Amino acid sequence: MPIDRVQSIAALSILLGLIVLGLKFLAWWLTGSVALYSDALESVVNVVTAAVALLAVRGSAKPADAGHPWGHGKVEYFSAVAVGVLIVVAALLILGEAWAAFRAPRPFEADPLGLLANALAAVLNGIWCTILIRQGRRLRSPALIADGRHLLTDILSSAGVLAGVLLAAATGWTLLDPALAALVALVILWSGWQLIRDSVGGLMDVAVPDPLLARIREVIAANAEGAIEAHDLRTRHAGPMTFVEFHLVVPGGMSVSEAHDICDRLERKIRETVEPAHIAIHVEPEDKAKHAGIVVL
Predict the structure, then answer these.
(1) Contacts by 179-183 with C-beta closer than 8 Å and gap 24+?
(2) By Cβ atoms counted within 10 A, which residue in 113, 147, 155, 270 is the most buried?
C-alpha cells in the first residue's frame, strides 16, 4: 500500500536524522566552529520535522468519517506549515549565535576528524534527500516532499560551511566563521518561507498544476461520447488525494442509465490519469449548456 510505504520512509527519516545529528555535533565538538554549530542546530530541526512528517502521514492515512467526510489529507499541509515555522526558528537561533560570535570571535580548530564527520553527514543527507523528493512526488505526499526540500537546503549550507571553515582555517580570518553561520541562516530562512507559502497554497485549495489540468480536460473531451459538453471544471489537492468536479451536459432525452454509463466511463479514465482521486460529476440537461468549457470530441 502507498500509505504504508510513505510511513516507512517517514520513519526512516527520523533514524537517519538522528545519525546525521550525532555526526554534526561531533564535528562541532571537535572543531569549536560556530558555523558547524549552526549546521548542527539545523539538524535538530531535521529530526523534529521528520517526526512531524511521520505524524502527519499517519494522520492523513485515516479514512473519511462522519466528522471528516472528505478525509484527512490536509493534515500533511498543516505539518508542512509547522515544518516551515520550525525552519524559521532554527534560522533565528543560528543568527543569534552568529551575532554573538561576531561580537566576541571564538577560536576554532580545523580538526580533520570533525570535518570528515560533517562531510559524511552531508553525503548521507544528499542520498536521503533524493529518495524523499522522488518518493514524495511519486506517492504524492506533501510531508515527504517538505522533509526532502528542507534536507536539500541543509546539504547546500553544509557544503558552504565546510568549504568556509577550511578557508577560515587556512587564512586565519576568524570572522569568516560567524559570517558563514549567518549566511546559512539566511538560506534556511528562504527555504522556510518557500515551504510555508507552498503549504498555505494547498490549504487554500489551489488547483492542480496546469499540465495535469490540461491532461484531465483532454481525458474528459475524449471519453464523454454521448454527452454535449463539460463545464465548470474544478480541481484541488488534499495530500495524496486529487478532487475533480465538473458539470456534464447530456441530451434532454437521454435516460438516467445512459448518463450514468458515461459518468462511470469518465471516472474510470480520469483515475487512469490521476490516482487516488475523488470525482464528482453533476449531470445537466442540454438547456443548461454554456457553450463553453470542454467540447466533447
Answers:
(1) 179/98, 179/102, 180/35, 180/38, 181/34, 181/35, 181/37, 181/38, 181/94, 181/97, 181/98, 181/101, 182/94, 182/95, 182/98, 182/99, 183/157
(2) 147
